[in-house]
Design goal:
The complex is a heterodimer of chains A (54) and B (570). With 54 residues, chain A is mostly helical. Chain A is built from two helices and two strands. Chain A is rod-shaped, with a radius of gyration of 21 Å. In chain B, helix 4 runs antiparallel to helix 5, helix 7 runs parallel beside helix 9 and helix 13 packs antiparallel against helix 14. The relative contact order of chain B is 0.10. Chain B has a two-stranded antiparallel ribbon. Chain B has 570 residues and is mostly helical. Classes of the chains: A mainly alpha (54), B mainly alpha (570). At the A-B interface, helix 1 and helix 2 of A face helix 5, helix 6, helix 8 and helix 9 of B.
């Protein structure tokens, strides 16, 4: 939900970053995807690509 | 929801949901028992690495080093953290805990895992140390215990997330969740990644130890294992920073200098902190320089930036709160007149300073690929993480415990005089211990080595006498720190199990046990800047931050200079 209402009923735009920070499941997604991609998957791809000694 | 399952603490105003309260108590008690086991192992390991004593034979040393590492770095910390997660969700958001029965299942799995793992190590068939690198095999129960514990902890994390959903649905708070809860959420998210990585690496390794899997690739194992091994310590960082904010609010009624900036700093932890695991692999041959430098430098520096934000804003918020109460003389009256005899504050402040000055600066040095080589796999590394995990996390958790004894357990703190000195004994002892380790590591003394004298070894090596001196200082200061740890356990156990019940107020008085009802920080005439100096709301903290940066830059530069001297190019 991007809007909240004030006491007078007028909608107030909630900044994008605040909406991200207020949603624990988006944060959970980011907190798993970032290290999974940059650390684990990238690292494993490098290990997999090491040629096997003849 | 029935109010019969809630109680409101008369001193703090905190509201406890009965099932959550029982779970917090259970997790905290198990954590302290584990701390005792790990502490006894710490004493024996320290007395063995102290060259003048060299207490244990090699096999017993490695067995106890395994006991110490797993219990302290995994079981003690994560058990306490699950209690912190339940406190920061159910108690701070004043709502019921999600699925208490499933939370008890998680607790049971964690407890069984701890017992199974420790039994395997005690049998002498799993002295593989915490890393348990393949192809070095351990008793299958070593891995099974860790897996059970991890599953239990994962359940705890999802109970925490479920409780956040309940609080939002039942509208127990308005706007965003409190910053302390946001810090706990950060710890929870890192924990989910950590535990999932642990499952990915430990389940195949367990099957390999049973003979169902033929081969585990050592290089792959190291990558995925360190997503467990190092990230588990990042859970601690997020959790203890949340505890710093909580204690600043509890003791001073302080509010963050900028809650938005603090939240963004936690967000940087969520996105980037786990990547620092790569510094353990900086000398691994199969990984590219791009992977190493991206993960340990570019990405990790964003997490370091976040730590510096927290390191500035926590003492800054305390300074603003103190100045608003009239402590405005000079740069440091607010700090001089802080409640230094209150272990909740003194422990937290030593934790903050030790974590930043010792653990933080050394962490950046270790995360820089070039200068890492000076100290890679030396005793500098445990020197660094004893500064982060022991001074930073353990001391912060000890401080919080002094608050929780009257508030959560409804007991007065026993041996109040001893408790007053405990953070100093533990924090200063551990600071000297870590600095001595780092000094010895810079001289090349290895980590995890039973005998630095290489007695009767065919391929010996002679360290300079200064290395032996530093290891001796490490031994003495380690014993002092362990004495501080023993006092904490004595105070905690006697208070919780044999202590006097709290009647109308806690033994540390109302002012130090409030949370939601802490004295509000009144804005002085002209705003906070008017109570500060030179247009700064927190000038003392600003000067401390400049001092920190100066030490940081100097130490970083000295290491590059040292690298040039150990690796002559001409």
């Amino acid at each position: 939900m991007s809007d909240e209402t004030t006491g007078s009923g007028a909608p107030v735009r909630v900044p994008f970053m605040q909406r991200v920070l207020d949603n624990p499941f988006i944060l959970l997604f980011i907190g798993i995807v970032f290290p999974a991609v940059f650390y684990i998957i990238w690292g494993i791809m490098e290990i997999v690509n090491i040629p096997i000694a003849p | 929801m029935s109010n019969a399952t809630f109680r409101t603490c008369p001193e703090s105003g905190l509201q406890f949901h009965k099932p959550a309260e029982l779970l917090m108590r259970a997790h905290a008690v198990v954590a302290v028992v584990i701390l005792l086991i790990g502490g006894i192992a710490a004493l024996l390991v320290t007395l063995t690495r102290w060259p003048a004593i060299h207490l244990l034979p090699a096999d017993r040393f490695y067995q106890l080093l395994t006991t110490h590492g797993v219990n302290m770095l995994i079981f003690w910390i994560i058990s306490f953290e699950i209690a912190v997660l339940y406190f920061c969700s159910s108690t701070l958001l004043r709502c019921r805990l999600a699925t208490p029965k499933i939370a008890w299942l998680g607790f049971t799995l964690m407890l069984v895992g701890i017992i199974v793992n420790n039994a395997a190590v005690a049998s002498g068939t799993a002295s593989v140390m915490m890393t348990s690198y393949v192809p070095m095999p351990a008793n299958p129960n070593f891995y099974l215990g860790l897996i059970l514990f991890a599953v239990g902890a994962l359940i705890g994390c999802f109970v925490f997330l479920g409780t956040l959903v309940i609080a939002k649905d039942e509208k127990t708070y308005e706007g965003s969740i409190p910053l302390v809860t946001f810090g706990a959420l950060t710890a929870c998210i890192i924990a989910v990644f950590t535990i999932a990585s642990g499952a990915i690496v430990l389940i195949p390794t367990w099957l390999w130890s049973l003979g169902y899997v033929n081969h585990i690739d050592a290089a792959m194992y190291r990558i995925v294992w360190w997503a467990l091994g190092h990230s588990s310590q990042q859970i601690n960082v997020a959790a203890h920073v949340a505890v710093w904010y909580a204690i600043a609010a509890i003791v001073f009624g302080a509010r963050p200098l900028s809650e938005k900036v603090s939240r963004v700093a936690f967000f940087l932890y969520i996105a980037f902190l786990q990547l620092a695991s790569a510094h353990h692999l900086l000398v691994d041959p199969g990984l590219s320089a791009e992977w190493k430098i991206f993960n340990t430098s570019y990405a990790m520096y964003l997490a370091v930036l976040a730590s510096m934000v927290h390191g500035l804003t926590v003492p800054g918020s305390i300074e603003v709160a103190q100045r608003a109460k009239g402590l405005t003389n000079g740069l440091f009256e607010w700090l001089r007149k802080a409640p230094w005899s209150n272990p909740i504050f003194s422990g937290m402040f030593i934790s903050l300073v030790g974590f930043g000055f010792i653990g933080g600066i050394s962490g950046v040095v270790m995360g820089t690929e070039q200068i890492n080589i000076i100290i890679h796999n030396t005793i500098y590394v445990p020197g660094h993480f004893h500064a982060t995990v022991v001074i930073g996390t353990t001391l912060a958790f000890m401080s919080l415990t002094y608050f929780l004894i009257p508030v959560l357990f409804r007991k007065q703190v026993a041996f109040a005089g001893l408790a007053k000195w405990q953070p100093y004994l533990f924090g200063i002892g551990m600071s000297v211990f870590t600095l001595a380790m780092m000094g010895a590591g810079t001289l090349g003394v290895e980590r995890r080595h039973w005998d630095m004298a290489f007695t009767n070894s065919a391929l010996g090596f002679e360290y300079p006498a200064s290395a032996f001196t530093l290891m001796g200082i490490m031994g003495i200061s380690g014993v002092v720190a362990i004495l501080g740890g023993a006092i904490f356990i004595l105070v905690t156990v006697v208070s919780v199990f044999f202590g006097k019940s709290v009647e109308s107020e806690s033994s540390y008085g109302i002012a130090t046990t409030r949370l939601s009802r802490a004295d509000p920080v009144l804005v002085p005439d002209g705003g906070h800047e008017a109570a500060g100096k030179w247009g700064f709301a927190a000038p003392g903290t600003f000067v401390l931050a400049l001092f920190f940066l100066m030490i940081f830059v100097l130490y970083y530069a000295v290491n590059w200079k040292y690298l040039a001297s150990v690796w002559p190019m001409s």
